[in-house]
């Protein structure tokens, strides 16, 4: 499909491939920069904050307020040097995440997903990858977690258009991780009790490199 111009892409009209999946690999630097320049970086909520431990509300309004939230999320993600960020990680109760993530082949993906739902994979496509995983809301902690090495997410873009996003390797992990956030799950919730305890110990022993919201 023909390349859309940058203004159209920033307005939420990403091209799609022959199978209907968004092409989120083109003009990544320009699109991310355009969002980030409009945004204000916000501190990151951390594990224990109630905002992270419940399902978020569906996005139903796709106007300027959502556009500003997305811009703030890209700005916050860049400050924290993350590859994905969910709205509740900056205290906003809406099902939206942004990403700026490379896959295992080094291809960069940049995009926005509202109201995401993970597509159930048939058993023959569920090859597990047990790489390390971290989270901006569990700063400085990492743990091995098995997830499928391929993921598909359906949802809407920042203008309300229906979209499908797919990824492999590290980007697949990102799509699963951020969708989890919006349903009230952190990656440490999927660990054994021992590994969860170890991750929280790592977090307690180190200082985050970006502003966080203290849990009272």
From TrEMBL:
Binding locations of Fe cation: 135, 177, 181
One Gene Ontology molecular-function label: peptide deformylase activity
Entry note: cofactor: Binds 1 Fe(2+) ion.
Key words, A-Z: Hydrolase, Iron, Metal-binding, Protein biosynthesis
Catalytic residues (UniProt): 178
Essential cofactor(s): Fe(2+)
EC number(s) recorded for this UniProt protein: 3.5.1.88
Recorded catalytic activity of this chain's protein: N-terminal N-formyl-L-methionyl-[peptide] + H2O = N-terminal L-methionyl-[peptide] + formate
NCBIfam families: pept_deformyl, PRK00150.1-3
Family: Belongs to the polypeptide deformylase family.
Function: Removes the formyl group from the N-terminal Met of newly synthesized proteins. Requires at least a dipeptide for an efficient rate of reaction. N-terminal L-methionine is a prerequisite for activity but the enzyme has broad specificity at other positions.
The protein's name: Peptide deformylase
